[in-house]
Amino acid sequence: MLKSGITDTPPEIQDKHEQKTRLVCAHCGLDCPNDSVHLGDLYFCCQGCKKVYELLHANEMCAYYDLNEKPGITPQQDTSNLKYGFLDEEEIQQKLKEFSDGTTARVTFHIPAMHCASCIYLLERLNQLDSAITNSRVNFVRKELTLTYREEERSLREVVELIASLGYEPRIRLEDVEKKGRKDDRKKLYMQIGVAGFAFGNIMLLSFPEYLAHGTESVETFLRNLFVWVSAILSIPVVVFSGQDYLTSAWKGLRHKVVNLDVPISLGILALMGRSWFEIISGVGVGYFDSLSGLIFLLLLGKLFQAKTYETLSFERDYTAYFPVAVLKKEIDCERSVPVMSLEPGDRIVIRNQELIPADSILIAGDGAIDYSFVTGESQPVPKENGDIIYAGGRQIGEAIELDVIEKVSQSYLTRLWNHDSFTDQETRGTASLANRISKHFVAAVLLIALGAFLLHLPSDAGLAFQVLTAVLIVACPCALALATPFTLGTTMRIFGRNDLYLKNADVVERMAHVTSLIFDKTGTLTQSGTGEIQRIGEELGEDQLSLVKSLIRHSTHPLSMRLYAGLQAPVHPVVENFREYPGRGIEGIVQGQKIRVGSRTFTGAGDITDNIGLENLVGETHFSINDVYSGGFRIQTQLRPGLQGLIDRLKQRFNLALLSGDTEREKELLQPIFPNDTPMQFNQSPHDKLQYIKSQQKEGKKVLMVGDGLNDAGALQASHVGIALTEDVTAFSPASDALLDANTLGELDRFLCFSRIAVRIIIAGFVLSFLYNIIGLSFAVAGKLSPLVSAILMPASSISVVAFATFYTRWRAKMYGLRI
Amino acid sequence: MNVIVILLGVSLTIAIGFLIAFLWSVRSGQYEDTYTPSVRILLDDVDNKSQNNTAEEKVREKDDGQQS
């Protein structure tokens, strides 16, 4: 949204600005499209930014601008009144409010836009802007804002609208509304670490005489017994409180007949504890309480480290995030915005253009054209007529429709489908579970080795046998195996994110490494039309006709239409009847009683004439007809994206390339020199053709990476091994794709692909490291030459070394590779 | 020998005291956000400064008014 705002400026105007001075918005630091919005000698990129500045200035809060260079965020333009209407619902309010006694209330919002000290300054001083807000606190790490406000003076909706008007739009989603309180997990982990660390330190101190007097009998018996028993008592809370998660997890796993990674750890803990208590009760030794508490302490520290890493890597991928939180419900005399969770069978709802259908319903009024690409990956809209059942998850394309809900949201088809295991990519399980499969066999092998070694030593020396059993169980570290993958992939994913490639999850890295073929979509992917000049073909049109055309193309998401919509100066008629999209061809609709068609030449009845335009430039054309009479069209200058030539040159050495285009074949000659000669190029492809092409390639055993714009190739993106959606604005999310790539970074695609291969090699190196460690450690342990104490130090040390190797080596390689880290 | 027993008791008591203090600090939420307070403490200065500045400006404006 923001970037397209800049690129919308025709190049010649930008040049002029650069000749003068570049105008930078005083609020958000973006380039100003022109100098029309200003306040004295301060310029702003839009009215929204200016408004925020004025508000802050009036309240003497301009320190906001001193703390950080141009910290502002452009407020969203389309803050329609209905947007936060759902916050007036009592039900949603109750779920959002953490505390409310009728006079004051406390709520916490997630604010993704928060990014610097200025944000903290402003958000913690909201009470200066609105006296009804009594207190506001920021948690910068979690990007959360906790507000206390007087309910009598302000409604929740007004408070949210205030924050949103400053540019800090809170993200309110169903999952926030539905579940709260994952916070306590972390608190518990800290407390477990505290207790374990406390016990570990003290037991170490108490064991000092034993360490120093190893083998001799110089320590007095009374003191020795006292120290040992105090250690034993200190170790009880460590096992019972700090180690409980491992024990319960292993127990749960065993009950479901799954041997998970916590099983050997738990066995090790129990063996160590059992042996220690046996030794001190029978008086044969002093036990291994230091090892026991040290083991648990170090394990928990590792867990915290891991959790922190995951927290910073968290990526929104919960399906509920795609759902609209509220929906327009039609009542007898008015339309009201209600939460989707409160929808009951029989409710009448209104779904507008591009909105999702939240629940299974029956179409009552309007022409439905439902795009199910969210669910099936098939983006061709399915026409629906009155009385048809429309399943949840579809997206209405075209005019607003009215629906009767027949099933509650939570039970809907879509929820079941998304929750269904088989719907998640099958390929994902094949590759990413490599580590899991290895660890499963690994656990079994370790148990067998431990048992064998135990039985081997038992006849000759019972004490040694126990020691060997424990040492083997503890020194064998499947954690190192399990950690190599997530840490390498997680680090890679984060590095990619820094470089403007956003992955849906870490598994995508592994899939990217296996790619053999690349398929590009043309329009919006290889070419960009965002800054293209618009030329009229045929006679000039009157404003009436322009406005008819503009009204129709408002409903299209094709890049050319969007460029045209932004470029045409004409009023828009809100009502379009009989709206239809013919994928790959054009759109049709009745505006003001006139039948309008916009699309390709043949679609609008222009015939296949090629006039005298040269082919030195890439050109996109849109034609239209009014009442079936061809009325000319527009020619939009499109350019190849920068860096494309270099990218193709580098890619053609390693991958099979192909090009799919929904447009005509006339640009083939232009694209031919860029691609190698044998590149398959398919033109006039409908979204369905694209999908079929991907599938045929996959049947040949190729691993296909598809790069598209995510709009009319969602099906192909979903079907491909890796689907990358190019985007001018990373906040737009296309659920069918596996990754989002900032359009300006397309030229770097080969680097990402090569680096994902490096990442996989790093994982394998991590595995080798881990195996070497285990083989050496196990052989010493089986021979009885490794005390459980040494094992307890070696085991977390190996985990940490593997994690450190995975993280730092990946970062180092990325740095060598010229990626931002 | 007895003194070691006493020392043991004292050291354990102190250590437990610290443990309790730590558990209390975790429970009261001091570890939930380890970044914002470090910025917040500096922002108080910014507030004072800007208030002083505006106060000074007002005084200056008043002076200017009297002079003219």
Overall outline of chain A:
globular
Helical stretch count of chain B?
Answer: 2
- Report the biggest beta sheet of chain B as strand number plus sense, adding barrel if it closes: none
* Overall pLDDT level of chain A: 74
Helix content of chain A: 40-55%
Instruction: Specify the number of helices of chain A.
Output: 29
User: How many E-type strands of chain B?
Assistant: 0
Oligomer: heterodimer
| Helix vs. strand class of chain B | mainly alpha
Structural class of chain A: alpha+beta
Characterize this entry briefly.
The complex is a heterodimer of chains A (821) and B (68). Chain A is an alpha+beta fold.
Give structural attributes:
heterodimer; A: 821 residues; alpha+beta; 7-stranded mixed sheet; 7-stranded antiparallel sheet; 17% strand; globular; B: 68 residues; mainly alpha; 2 helices
Structure description:
- The complex is a heterodimer of chains A (about 800) and B (about 70).
- Chain A is of the alpha+beta class and about 800 residues long.
- Chain A is built from 29 helices and 29 strands.
- Chain A is globular, with a radius of gyration of 32 Å.
- Chain B has about 70 residues and is mainly alpha-helical.
- The longest helix of chain B has about 30 residues, at about 35-65.
- Classes of the chains: A alpha+beta (about 800), B mainly alpha (about 70).
- The interface between A and B is medium-sized, with 34 and 31 residues.
